[in-house]
Amino acid sequence: MMTRSAVEIRGDVAAGRTSPSAVCAATLERLDRQAGRFNAFITVAHDRARAKARELDRDPALAGRPLAGVPVAIKDNICTRGVRTTAASRVLEHHVPLYDATVVERLEAAGAMIVGKTNCDEFAMGSSSEHSAFGPVRNPWDTGRTAGGSSGGSAVAVATRLVPIALGSETGGSVRQPAALCGVVGLKPTYGRVSRYGLIAFVSSIDQVGVFGATVADVAACLQVIAGRDPREATSADVPVDDYIAAIEGGAQGLRVGVPNAWVGAGLEPGVRQAFTDSLDVLRGAGADLVDVELPHSEYATATYAVVVMAEASSNLSRFDGVRYGARAPHADTVDALYSRTRALFGDEVKRRIMLGTYVLSAGYYDAYYLKAQKVRALIRQDFERAFERVDVIATPTSPTTAFRLGERLEDPVQMYLADAFTASANLGGIPAISVPCGFAAGLPVGLQFMARAWAEPVLFRTAAAYERLTAWTTHAPSV
Ligand code: GLN
User: Fold this and answer.
1) What three-state secondary structure class fits 155?
2) Whose Cα sits closest to atom 4 in ligand 1?
């Protein structure tokens, strides 16, 4: 039984062919049955989903809303009122928010039903969804492999067609990389496009909410609902929201597609290289112009990203001190003991980042690391500005490899960070990027990434949808 696309479900609900309660019941039934298999969910929101379904059933006027009766899953670092929100951490294991994130509020106002909270790396720190206090997420194409991360549970929820749409968060590739490794579409919007009110902060100069869907049209429909200024969130920009749904009709004819050959040349798995080359041929065949572009500083993206991320993470996570939020260590006689015993609950990766971040921000090292990283970040941004004078989008593989084995990179943080080699520069540049399925290598999905200039989500949707129609890779799903 395959859940249909959000666009189809919404059409059926509007035409009275099905009811939100029927969709909700079928989704929860499958979720309960499959929940353990891939460990994609931390919490199932039975009551909240059913209550929303009943509300939609009762009021026929709601059937016309853009996501009426569409079940969605939400990454567990996005706050849901009355539904536990853990960020996959022991520190927030019993944390029940008093308010909804703006994105959650907007989804429900559009008629969507929140069915559960998805598993991820602790505080979104990771590339494999193994750094979770609730155990690793498994890849539905091969359960011995990771789903990617950090939003692995959301990627799996969509890949298994349990829900057509799921939200994740992006700091360095946490939506696009798991989308690629699980064979679904994943979007990271422009910095400031989507409100982060209610997203648990990790790297405030980068974090953005992102969208997973099985099709490009569903991702566009979801962004249409969640994008736009939020008076409660100062970094959400007052930039008009385009018609993303109309944008998917554009086609590839005449698109200028930049390919940073020098950058993507190195370190690609052969199967990924083949799928990438084939997809460029498809675009060329459909009338796109391929242009060689240079992004000379992108090779420093991973290192630059690491410094910025650790610094801001160490500062953001200082709020988890046992006093204000989440867990509080018992029997502490002094404030220092309270802090250190409470923080002992953090997992290894979170501790590593807090310590490294504190180091790069400390007196004497600030200039050598943090300031330097900010300068390289400016150069990465300038590279993009220059490239986008000549092209509409830039294409790269999303990830240098397909899904790696569980455990394979846990002891080697640098290998883990290199999973973001092609994704992190868009985050540092603040620009939007999308990953679309582009084939398989040894039975595992491969993702194709397109990046565009800030606020140019429409051209991303146009390119991704054109490619989707030309290849039909998004119709492939794992058998579960
Ligand atoms: N893998 C990256 C990291 O570990 C990205 C995480 C993210 O985008 N949230 O920081």
Assistant:
1) helix
2) 126
174 is catalytic: yes
H or E stretch including 21? helix 20-38
Ligand 1 within 6 A of 420 CB? yes
Distance 63 CA to ligand 1 centre (A): 37
Domains of the chain, residue spans: 6-250+434-475
What is the tens place of the pLDDT at every residue in 123-138? Answer: 999 999 999 999 999 9
The one catalytic residue in 127, 129, 132, 150 is: 150
CATH for 6-250+434-475, options being 3.40.30.10, 3.40.50.2000, 3.30.830.10, 3.90.1300.10: 3.90.1300.10
Is residue 141 within 8 A of residue 57, CB to CB? The reply is no
pLDDT-based confidence at 1, cuts 50/70/90? very low
The pLDDT tens digits of the residues spanning 257-297 come to 999 999 998 789 999 999 999 999 999 999 999 999 999 99
pTM above threshold 0.90 = yes
CA 194 to CA 351: how far, in whole Å?
29
Query: Does the annotation count 75 as an active-site position?
Result: yes
CB of 168 closer than 6 angstroms to any ligand 1 atom: no
Nearest atom of ligand 1 to the alpha carbon of 420: 1
Marked catalytic residue, from 75, 169, 195, 236: 75
**Nearest in space to 101 (alpha carbons), one of 241, 234, 193, 226:** 226
Look at strands 71-75 and 113-118 and give their pairing: parallel
Active site residue 150: yes
